[in-house]
Amino acid sequence: MKALTFQRYGKSPDIGFSDLPRPTPKPDELLVQVHAASVNPIDNMIPTGLFKAVVKFQLPATLGSDLAGVVVAVGNRVTRFKPGDAVFANIFDLGTGSLAEFAVVPEQAAALKPANLDFVQAASIPMVGLTSWQALNERIGLRAGQKVFIPAGSGGIGTFAIQLAKWLGAKVGTTTSTGNVALVRSLGADEVVDYRQQAFETVLRDYDAALGTVRGETLEQSIGILKPRGKLVSLVGPLDVAFARARRANVILKAVFALMSRSIKHKAKQRSVDYSFLFARADGDQLAQIGQLLETQRIRPVIDQVFPFEQAKEALDYLAQGRAKGKVVVQMLPTP
């Protein structure tokens, strides 16, 4: 089968197509013919080696995390799915990739594709959906009436997280460029700061929580708009000791992560803000709940551009430019 792979970590990862054997599902896995797969910033970060110590791949490794497709075979312990089922899933951090003609998916990571979505739309959801769900629901415990800051509102995470926060009853503040103000307002954003005209930290006040979706100064500046005992959950780093413990990292990595997060932790503590780093996990049950929100149209997919499979590398390059409005999707098979 054809798959988009990288050969090594570093500045020259040699990303390109490879012919690989079709994978064989283990007893608790599904073999899925991939119809579409979306790309995420982490897909561009993995080949650099940034997460080499905590995300394990056997090289050459297939890229990609999100997929939607049709089950063609199941392992003998699988009970919830059968050949012919249309599914979607996130397989990040499971040692395999989705930018391929076929992919193996653990049963616990899969959910039935929402009936009202096509494969391209469904493939755009898993990573951003699970990340938003785990950040807002689990880590923050966002409640109706609270205020949450979600920067970069027109991006992949932003377009989903704004809608989820609104469904949870929260008020949402965000940043975007002039041309995307109407988009983020249509998704439910209450306070929109055009970052080309104003600095958000001079406009927004008394927020209960914030997501870290942008590297650099934005993360630190978010601390200043939070109430005491507010929560800052970063999706982009720096990694912290709690994350190291959750990954059962060795003493050296714990020390490294402690050093990496020392500055942001210190600044957060000065304002009585709780900082944590979140690495989303695959979870088919949560994805099924997200699927219900999509089927009832409480949340809608936002897709910027669709690339044919032959241009999967170009899709990653386009995503890396940081200008996508919503998700970038790679389509393997034409829409039925």
UniProtKB/TrEMBL annotation:
<keyword id="KW-0560">Oxidoreductase</keyword>
<feature type="domain" description="Enoyl reductase (ER)">
    <location>
        <begin position="10"/>
        <end position="330"/>
    </location>
</feature>
<dbReference type="InterPro" id="IPR013154">
    <property type="entry name" value="ADH-like_N"/>
</dbReference>
<dbReference type="GO" id="GO:0016491">
    <property type="term" value="F:oxidoreductase activity"/>
</dbReference>
<dbReference type="InterPro" id="IPR011032">
    <property type="entry name" value="GroES-like_sf"/>
</dbReference>
<dbReference type="Pfam" id="PF13602">
    <property type="entry name" value="ADH_zinc_N_2"/>
</dbReference>
<dbReference type="InterPro" id="IPR036291">
    <property type="entry name" value="NAD(P)-bd_dom_sf"/>
</dbReference>
<dbReference type="InterPro" id="IPR050700">
    <property type="entry name" value="YIM1/Zinc_Alcohol_DH_Fams"/>
</dbReference>
<dbReference type="Pfam" id="PF08240">
    <property type="entry name" value="ADH_N"/>
</dbReference>
<protein>
    <submittedName>
        <fullName>NADP-dependent oxidoreductase</fullName>
        <ecNumber>1.-.-.-</ecNumber>
    </submittedName>
</protein>
<dbReference type="InterPro" id="IPR020843">
    <property type="entry name" value="ER"/>
</dbReference>
